[in-house]
């Protein structure tokens, strides 16, 4: 305890002791004259002082003074009437009640003051050490208080900031907009956040995000400023990088389009001449060579066509040519084209398709079925089964292509529609696949506004589903 507090405490005790002594002397005097009711009021003076200074401890003093009051009454009035005894006891009790009430009120006041002081200190620390620049703006014009981060942001000392106009920190081109924003914010008609250019002491322009919140019941508001200059710089760098990447991507697509066309051009005569040579009688060995040439050329042509189609999809150059598509007719056409492959493996293909017609791009619907059914044939062993089922669900149709093939592990199901993704590279190399068919299926279904997914159980087979709306 400091010396000043010790002296102040001693003074309080002496004043209270003097007050009590005076009251006791006057009590004895008035009691000796027979005035039993007058001197009781004198006791309230030390009780009030004790309640203010010592809070609930004033009750102890009230007990003492009440006892003195009762004792003097009994001492100076021999055999007092019952009424006087009751009245004396009531007055003594009232002293205790008053002392307790004053002590309780004082204690609560002190506690409230302590809590207020703690809250002020807590909020002062929060304000001072916040990671964002904070300031208090009076009447929307003058900065009255700022924290350390605001000093760092502005370059001014705290003494220089105090009393400085708020608009001095705003770039000229943003001044009107920010002032209008602050005015609307005070009326509660604007969002909490505003971005503008902040001018520091050395004239450096910084980009900040400002949150301005009016103080309820006051003409001031609190502004929280976050420096986003570095973020804006990186954002600009990212934008420039994206533009360069977009340009490079366009160059890549243009190059691939030219390359695919140039690669496809020499394939036509190779396939054509190979077909012509088949008409001649050739030895078995040369005929096998010719067959290999033709099949390889057709496989390469198929691959180039798929790559070219994906390039068109990436370049968003594909448009749907909508027409009425009779689903049973399309499926029958696809099965006929793939029937030789299925017969070679002695596989059975069954269909369950109602009479239904949708509005779609027929060639792309054919491509979807070709990719899914050819995949089922490719990965289903000999004597396997492939089931094609179409359901009419009112607004759309749901197609399921199920097989009894090798199946797909669960961890691969979410990736099989990605380009060039292959579950088992050894099998795909044997079959000549490159993992493009399912990605084309996904893109075509997406173009029509449908969804595609798959379920599978390794060793038992897979099911590929897709939906297509009836009307585009």
What is the secondary structure topology, with strand pairs?
Elements: H1 3-32, H2 44-54, H3 58-76, H4 82-129, E1 133-138, E2 142-146, H5 148-154, H6 158-161, H7 172-186, E3 193-199, E4 205-214, E5 220-227, H8 229-277, H9 284-314, E6 322-326, H10 327-344, E7 348-352, E8 357-361, H11 362-378, E9 385-392, E10 396-403, H12 425-431, H13 437-447, E11 452-457, E12 461-469
Parallel strand pairs: 7-9
Antiparallel strand pairs: 1-2, 1-5, 3-4, 4-5, 6-8, 9-10, 10-12, 11-12
Helix pairs in contact: 1-2, 1-3, 2-3, 2-4, 3-4, 8-9, 10-11, 11-13
**CA-based shape:** elongated
What gap, in angstroms, lies between the N and C termini? 86 Å
Tell me the count of domains: 4
CATH architecture of the largest domain: 2-Layer Sandwich
Radius of gyration: 47 Å
Instruction: State the major sheet.
Output: 5 strands, antiparallel
Work out the helicity level: 55-70%
What is the number of strand segments? 12
């Amino acid at each position: 305890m400091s010396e000043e507090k010790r002296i102040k405490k001693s003074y309080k005790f002496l004043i209270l002791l003097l007050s009590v002594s005076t009251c006791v002397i006057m009590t004895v005097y008035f009691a000796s004259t027979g005035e039993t009711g007058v001197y009781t009021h004198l006791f309230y003076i030390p009780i009030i002082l004790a309640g203010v200074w010592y809070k609930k401890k004033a009750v102890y003093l009230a007990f003492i003074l009440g006892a003195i009051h009762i004792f003097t009454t009994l001492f100076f009035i021999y055999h007092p009437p019952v009424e006087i005894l009751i009245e004396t006891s009531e007055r003594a009790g009232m002293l205790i009640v008053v002392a307790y009430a004053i002590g309780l009120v004082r204690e609560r006041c002190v506690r409230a003051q302590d809590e207020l002081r703690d809250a002020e200190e807590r909020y002062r620390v929060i304000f001072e050490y916040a990671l964002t620049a904070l300031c208090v703006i009076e009447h929307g014009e003058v900065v009255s208080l700022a924290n350390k981060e605001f000093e760092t942001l502005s370059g001014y000392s705290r003494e220089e900031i105090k009393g400085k106009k708020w608009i001095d920190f705003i770039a000229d081109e943003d001044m009107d907009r920010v002032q209008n924003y602050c005015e609307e914010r005070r009326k509660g008609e604007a969002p909490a956040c505003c971005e503008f250019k902040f001018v520091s002491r050395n004239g450096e322009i910084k980009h900040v995000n400002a949150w301005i919140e009016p103080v309820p019941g006051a003409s001031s508001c609190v502004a929280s400023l976050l420096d986003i200059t570095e973020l804006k710089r990186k954002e600009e760098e990212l934008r420039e990088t994206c533009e360069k990447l977009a340009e490079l991507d366009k160059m890549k697509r243009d190059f691939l389009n030219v390359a695919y066309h140039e690669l496809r051009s020499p394939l036509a005569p190779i396939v054509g001449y190979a077909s012509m040579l088949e008409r001649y009688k050739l030895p078995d060995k040369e005929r096998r060579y010719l067959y290999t040439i033709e099949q390889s050329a057709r496989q390469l042509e198929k691959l180039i066509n798929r790559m070219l189609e994906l390039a068109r999809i990436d370049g968003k150059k594909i448009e749907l040519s909508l027409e009425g598509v009779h689903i049973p007719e399309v499926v029958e056409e696809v099965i006929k084209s793939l029937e030789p492959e299925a017969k070679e493996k002695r596989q059975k293909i069954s269909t369950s398709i109602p009479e239904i017609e949708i509005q779609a791009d027929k060639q792309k619907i054919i491509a979807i079925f070709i990719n899914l059914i050819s995949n089922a044939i490719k990965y289903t062993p000999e004597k396997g089964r492939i089931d094609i089922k179409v359901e009419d669900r009112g607004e759309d149709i749901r197609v399921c292509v199920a097989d009894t093939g090798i199946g797909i592990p669960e961890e691969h199901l979410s990736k099989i529609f990605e380009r060039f993704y292959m579950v088992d590279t050894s099998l795909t190399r044997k079959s000549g696949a490159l993992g493009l068919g399912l990605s084309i299926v996904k893109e075509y279904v997406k173009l029509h506004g449908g969804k595609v997914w798959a379920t599978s159980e390794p060793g038992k087979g897979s099911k590929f589903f897709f939906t297509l709306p009836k009307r585009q």
